[in-house]
Amino acid sequence: MLPRFRERLSAWVLSARVKTHALLLAARDPRVPRPAKVLAALVAAYALSPIDLIPDFIPVLGLLDDLILVPLGCALVVRLIPDPVWQECLATARRNLDARLPKSRAAAAVIVVAWVVAAGLLGLLTFRSLRP
Fold it and tell me: CA neighbours within 13 Å on the CB side: how many for 124?
C-alpha cells in the first residue's frame, strides 16, 4: 500500500510542477487575457516563493495552504485562459520538464510585506482595544 501511495504522491508533485511551469508560460503569453495573466503570475509566484503565507511549521494549516490555495488558484486561472492556449502551455511545460523552476524573490518580498502589514494591523488593533 505504501509504494502505491508514494507513486500517487510522486505523480501529483510532478503534475503540480508541470502546471506551475505552465502558469508561468501563460502569464507571459500575449493571447491570455490580462486578469488571467495577473492571477497566473500570482499563483505561480506563490507556488515558487520560498516563504509561505502561512508558515509550514504551523501544524496542519502550514501545509494546507500549499495543498489548497495553489490548486484552487490554478483551477481558477485555467478557467480564465482559453483552452487551446492552456493546452499549448501545458505541452510546452511537459517538454521542458527538466528545466529548473526559479525561486521568486519578488514573491517572497510580497509575502514578507503582507506579514509585516498584518502584524502591524494586529498590533494597532490590540493597542486600541487596551487603551481606556
Answer: 6
C-alpha cell at 3: 509504494
**DSSP H or E run through 31:** none
For the four alpha carbons of 42, 60, 114 and 106, in that order, the dihedral sign comes to: negative
Nearest to 110, CA basis, from 62, 52, 68: 52
Of 85, 75, 55, 70, the residue nearest 17 (C-alpha): 70
**Angle 34-48/61-80 helices, nearest 10 degrees?**
150
- Helix, strand, coil percent content, the chain, rounded in steps of 5: 75, 0, 25
pLDDT (tens digit per residue) in 61-110: 676 777 778 888 889 999 999 999 999 999 998 888 766 655 566 666 77
- pLDDT at 131 exceeding the cut of 60: yes
Closest CA to 40 of 13, 63, 20: 20
Dmax (CA) of the chain: 64
Whose CA is closest to 17, among 120, 104, 90? 90
